[in-house]
Amino acid sequence: MDATVIKIGGSLALYQEKLKILCSKLRVASKKHNILVIPGGGEFADVVRVLDKRFTLSDSVSHKMAILGMDQYGFLLSDLIKGSQVINQLKHIQNIFDSHKLPIFLPSNFILRNNPLENSWNVTSDSIAVYIANQLHIRKVILATDVDGIFTRDPKKYSDTKLICELSARKLESMNERTSVDKFLPKLLSKMQIKCFVVNGLFPERVEDILDKRNAICTIID
Amino acid sequence: MDATVIKIGGSLALYQEKLKILCSKLRVASKKHNILVIPGGGEFADVVRVLDKRFTLSDSVSHKMAILGMDQYGFLLSDLIKGSQVINQLKHIQNIFDSHKLPIFLPSNFILRNNPLENSWNVTSDSIAVYIANQLHIRKVILATDVDGIFTRDPKKYSDTKLICELSARKLESMNERTSVDKFLPKLLSKMQIKCFVVNGLFPERVEDILDKRNAICTIID
Question: Taking the model in full, what pTM does it have?
Fold first, then answer.
């Protein structure tokens, strides 16, 4: 399918006005490009983490609860993106593109029914976005987060760190550092023909540049 | 249907050990009584409230997000109640009773599809529990919360307050005080043949007493 999956990271919800700008830019971009939005988990997943720790829940149950958190954020995004439509079945996506709406995929129905991925906190919305893209034969995934991409060391902790412009899934898998993407992602990407862009959604012009195939500050996992 | 709906309030998740005791007592009680558990919202709904305030979401969207929070808590409860089974369709409940399992109803599938109730924060899991009970012709609903019942004044704010043992839905509707149940509940109850018990779930023996038709410290709305 000729389209781009954009995962809107949950962390962006902490930047209310900037998230609104990103959403309105996506609406404009969706007139030129087929864009499928997949929501992150953010604060909705964080509360699941808290309860998981408090009750030592089973992996399967906390996984399901976190994915419901993605649905919650998807509904929130549907309020911010004019002309969007939430969907929970992959087969409806082409119809929504055809009707010039911007689809937001709520993953719980699909993921809870099919359970295709490891049930652990290593699998978050990053892996789910890539998994869904692959199901739809979409070859371009943008992971919009609140940092500029993948760094040599965690930029929220260290100052002596550098943005990596491009790296392979295999190289990403071998990194010991915690990065801005989930741990399962490189495993998935190494099996798939997908080009993945990790980009700072606080700068919507970078997302537009990637959609329009211009150079942008980001990390490309290829 | 000869059964009792028990809504397990989300606030009880703050009392980890006590919630576990309540859950194990419910499992025992379910061998004598048909019990249908409906989850509250608690911390999962609270994060929706925070995001609703931050983004001034539409009533419809925040309602859906909060109901997904009930599903999340339902999954959590399924980990705490041995022999339980989550379901999202009302028609399966009798089968689950027949197989001696304890059903936990995840409301999002039903409520998001049918949208039978006002979309506002006046409608919480209290009203949803009563609505679902009525759909199933269940005439007894227990709302297990973290206070002893409905008081003349909010017991978390005032010391000069008294537990009300029994009151009508109409009387409840006329109360100006914020109570431990949602604002929409009396409107619903006034139209239904349901006896509703508001009880402190931190004392599971009170819940057992109500199930066994013994007197208990609680508020009966009749």
Answer: 0.96
